[in-house]
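Example 3.2
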Amino acid sequence: MTDPESRSESRIPPATTKPRGSELGEVGSPDSRRVPRADYLLWAKRRPHPTLDLARSDVPPCTLDDLPGVREALSLQGRNDEGWPPLVSAVAVRYGVEEQQVVTATGASGANFLACAALLRPGDEVIAERPGYDPMWAVPELLGARLVWLDRRFEERFSVDVDRVAALVTPRTRLVVLTSPHNPTGVAIPVDVLRELDALADRRGFHVLVDEIYADSLIDRPRPAAAALGPRLITTGSLTKTYGLSSLRCGWVLAAPDVAAEVLAARALVDGVGSVLTERAAAIAFGHLPALLARARGVLEPNRRRFEAFMEREPTLEWVEPDGGTVAFPRLVSGEDAEGLAERLLRDHETAVVPGHFFGAPAHFRVALGIDAGELGRGLVSLSRSLRVAT
């Protein structure tokens, strides 16, 4: 299955754009009558894919020619009971952990689900960031947990305040769920803050799950994986966003050995075993990560500069500049809901962006930076024209 945001077409009719719970003013509020939903992912799968698609969140997909030797090396044979050993070894080396700390998964979505399934039980509390990526809210709800909101504020550059986390912790707190770089803003959590969170989690008896799917796209030199910084920190990641390998659906969980063992037990219930074909190909991809990363940076870095220049001349928008990631998350200075802007862009200019209400931030919208430079340039022209209409 390809990444829903990179599909060129869909046979599913467009979904409603309003997220679950919006009528009550609370994104992600549980409804006991149905399975909790990730409304953003449903929208991403069903939405139109117009001429100028600024609603994606990955770099252009790779071809088999980007992975020399992969055709010859792929085979359907082999045992993959607890992760293809060459892949487990490659992930461990790449992120500075022991092999017993690595659990492979079906993409980062699968990794996040397995980590939550290993740790959460009905009645537990999960501290979840807002704005945020809505599957990180829906999965704990699905498992019977109660969400407690940690607001990452524009005025504080979307930073994570450890004292604010501490104030939200109760005896029922089992997990804190974060993304770094933050989805949707691209702001990274500093290493010293992660270490403080690990110490707090150790004192209060919970874990911190950090989705680091965008970490390899950081502008500055790579930082250690959160899981390498302390035993209460868990990292999830994949080859999807930065490397253009969404079709492989290769993800992983990095955790302390005791937590990793629980995640493996959860995977046995969900997947049985992993795909030999996928994990063989992913292991080969790890041998080419420097070249794939250079390919991604060749797309992202000039596009970031192009978007920075756009923001400097656009008085109706403001933003927090990202540390990395493949997207930007501006907001309307007026504070109005950006869904109207997104609808005008699609209707009048065949241009797509992601409305911010999917992330719990209605005045914002998300823009792709990992796309063709010409497509981004034309999309920004359309965006500017739509903003002029609005004012």
